Amino acid sequence: MRSFLVALSAALPAACGLVPGGAAPVPETAPEADLTEPATTTAEAPVAPQMNWHSTGKGLWIYHNVWGDCAFLEHGHGRNSAWGLWRLPLGKVVASAPEADAEEGGYTVRFTCTDASACIEPGFLYKTPDRTDTHTIPFETEERALTYLSMVASLDTACKALK
Questions:
Q1: How many domains does the chain have?
Q2: Does residue 69 contact residue 89 with C-beta atoms inside 8 Å?
């Protein structure tokens, strides 16, 4: 075993490119950059608007996460949306004003499909196999619900401007 360790300690510096005396070898130089042409930059494509809001309030509302982009508004309930996931097509739903929730406390915003179809995709985790025509998102306060609705309106406006 000892002879193996001695051989390993002798071979390791060579394998790592070290030369006796502890000096590292001089790295190969990279080819020189061609500086005769000025560097050109390309304009980046516009970033698609999105919103990401982690919770709809404190207490039990921390388990309700809302986010969205130009395709969907999404509402996840629980960690990784294990208790529920809803995808609401941004251009196909309309929201109600915040309503007081007498049973649970707080406020709710009800989304319905504009064409009376079942356009909202409910499910769990990352799968949304079912369809429904309405969905309610709970909020701790009316102000938080109004802020969310304002963000949704801004997202919708920004997405329409891209088209």
A1: 1
A2: no
